[in-house]
Amino acid sequence: MQDRLLELVGYNCRQVSTFMGAKFAKKMAKIGLRRMEFAVLMLVRENEQINQKRLAEVIQVAPSNLNLVLDRLESVGWLVRYRNPIDKRSQFVKLTLRGIRKCRSAEIAAIETENEITASLSASERSELVRLLRKVHLEARPRLEIN
Amino acid sequence: MQDRLLELVGYNCRQVSTFMGAKFAKKMAKIGLRRMEFAVLMLVRENEQINQKRLAEVIQVAPSNLNLVLDRLESVGWLVRYRNPIDKRSQFVKLTLRGIRKCRSAEIAAIETENEITASLSASERSELVRLLRKVHLEARPRLEIN
DNA sequence: TATTGTTATACTCTATAACTATA
DNA sequence: TATAGTTATAGAGTATAACAATA
Q1: Rounded to 10 degrees, what is the CA torsion of B13, B19, B23, B25?
Q2: Mean pLDDT on A62-79
Q3: How many Cα atoms sit within 13 Å of B118 on the Cβ side?
């Protein structure tokens, strides 16, 4: 049926990503978030003084596109931008209290989706899958210290 | 940095998929193809009498969107649609000779990207990664016999 | 000159509803 | 009534270039 395609890591990865993504997007929509916004909230929550450039690198989105995401998150009051006093070109971002609450609900929904989708894997299979994906990603983007 | 996100299969999968996808898309662009079109060509090549509904299911795209892809592939002469004589509602698709040649070049480019990206994995790690991704996908979409 | 962020724009991908022709 | 395909349209994600402010 699709033997040649199913030999490719790239194809399988995209299939799983598309399927999980659609499922996750629906859950996020219920709490008023898009997938990209979820990743931004999570990352900002864990990194108090991250700037936009760094954020864009880690999350793999063009700075111009990240900017639009931040505009929206800021306009609904889940996040604020403020100038770096040391280097006034850059801006830091941080979550508001409401942003932190929103992020928490989103994280719960994310873990739910995660468990639904990986239900067929044993605990060790699941962690092996994560390990291999990270290895591919880490090796392929050596300049970026993503950990 | 991104500890919580990196525990999620979904997030890692998307990161790898995005990164590989961008790399692959550039290669495809050089030979005048988009990613989605590659998958369609590959699948049609392997399945002589597949109809559009089935194709859409396997490839995880809405029939309406697949239709646009097929329109383009047909307009450039890589693929033809023809009515199923048994059930005139459905149409089969098949590759032209030029489509088969195009598909072959695309496949070579795909395998190149694949090897570049998974260079850090051993042969057994690579096949384990494919196995786990397929297991997730297969279990999550039980109705669809994707093999 | 180089970097950070911003604006503008276009393309790809995804999702949904309404329609047609056949069954 | 139901199904395969089609048309139209909107939203989300991605990519690129040009610009302002700052270094």
Answers
A1: 70
A2: 97
A3: 25
For chain B, the domains span 5-114
- Please report the residues numbered 83 through 142 in chain A whose beta carbons come closer than 8 angstroms to any beta carbon of chain B: 107, 110-111, 113-114, 116-121, 125-126, 128-130, 132-141
Write down the pLDDT at residue B119: 94
Query: pLDDT value at position A140?
Result: 77
CB A19 within 8 A of CB B141: yes
Contact B2 A113 (CB under 8 A): no
Over 80: is that where the pLDDT of A104 sits? yes
Using the CB atom, is residue B76 less than 7 Å from strand C?
no
Whether CB of A17 is under 7 Å from strand C: the answer is no
Interface contact flag, B128 A126, Cβ < 8 Å = no
**Helix, strand, or coil here: A128?**
helix
Task: Give the model's pLDDT for residue A146.
Answer: 45
**CATH number, domain B5-114, options 2.60.40.290, 1.10.10.10, 3.40.50.300, 3.30.2350.10:** 1.10.10.10
Query: According to CATH, what is the number of the domain A3-113+120-140?
Result: 1.10.10.10
Q: For residues B38 and A111, what is the distance between their CA atoms, to the nearest angstrom?
A: 33
Give pTM, 2 decimals: 0.92
pLDDT at A147: 42
Q: What is the pLDDT of residue B1?
A: 72
